[in-house]
């Protein structure tokens, strides 16, 4: 809340100003994103640090307040609630004390914690206290589709990113790509699944 209120306002750290605080919030959740400039150009931003405070899930806060049910929580439903309750939105967003700092990136796609460009449906964000970055993983789960319903996902992915909300050995977030279709899938994705780490035989036997 202090940063949003201007605590760093005299440091000259701003990259740009955006016109929608809700969009800015979701960029903080994602850790990277694209901004459409007034002239139609695109500026790509990547993760450049965090203020050290733990991440608090706004979805979980809305559930605890009775504003949303667990089954109804998604990126889309959170956005709708924030837009329909402008008088409460700022206070709700400020419950998450974590703040992400960004940098301008030249690559076409977002850069993950492994410092490589993420690949849609192939890059996985993990808790690297348990899973080392760069490890190939066989992932089995279900995922929502743009047209409705779910699809079976069985594919090879690579642990290439991390995130403030990704905690524990059994949590992973798939990078679905950019654009409205990817946002629709990512926003509704909360299925359970399983994964297998693919390690050299000698290393696997010593784990």
Largest sheet: 5 strands, mixed
- The total of beta strands comes to 8
Question: Taking strands numbered 1, 2, ... along the chain, how are they ordered across the largest sheet?
Answer: 7-4-6-5-8
Shape: globular
Task: Determine the N-to-C terminus distance.
Answer: 42 Å
Helix content: 10-25%
Cα gyration radius (Å): 18 Å
CATH architectural arrangement of the largest domain: Beta Barrel
Output the CATH homologous superfamily of the largest domain: Barwin-like endoglucanases
Quaternary status: single chain
List the helices and strands and how they pair.
Layout (H helix, E strand, L loop, with lengths): L20 H10 L2 E4 L5 E9 L7 H7 L10 H10 L1 H8 L6 E6 L17 E4 L9 E9 L5 E12 L10 E3 L5 H9 L4 E5 L3 H6 L1
Parallel strand pairs: 4-6
Antiparallel strand pairs: 1-2, 2-3, 4-7, 5-6, 5-8
Helix pairs in contact: 3-4
């Amino acid at each position: 809340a202090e940063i949003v209120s201007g605590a760093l306002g005299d440091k000259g750290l701003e990259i740009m100003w955006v016109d929608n605080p809700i969009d800015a919030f979701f960029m903080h959740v994602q850790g990277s994103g694209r901004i459409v400039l007034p002239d139609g150009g695109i500026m790509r931003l990547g993760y450049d640090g965090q203020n050290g405070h733990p991440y608090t899930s706004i979805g979980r806060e809305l559930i605890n307040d009775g504003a949303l049910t667990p089954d109804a929580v998604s990126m889309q439903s959170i956005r709708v609630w924030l837009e329909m309750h402008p008088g409460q939105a700022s206070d709700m967003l400020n419950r998450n004390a974590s703040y992400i700092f960004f940098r301008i990136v030249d690559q076409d796609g977002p850069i993950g914690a492994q410092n490589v460009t993420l690949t849609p449906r192939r890059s996985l964000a993990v808790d690297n206290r348990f899973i080392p970055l760069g490890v190939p993983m066989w992932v089995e789960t279900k995922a929502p589709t743009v047209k409705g319903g779910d699809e079976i996902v069985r594919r090879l992915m690579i642990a290439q990113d991390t995130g403030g909300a990704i905690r524990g050995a059994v949590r992973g977030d798939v990078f679905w790509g950019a654009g409205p279709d990817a946002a629709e899938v990512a926003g509704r994705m909360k299925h359970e699944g399983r994964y297998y780490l693919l390690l050299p035989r000698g290393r696997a036997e010593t784990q």
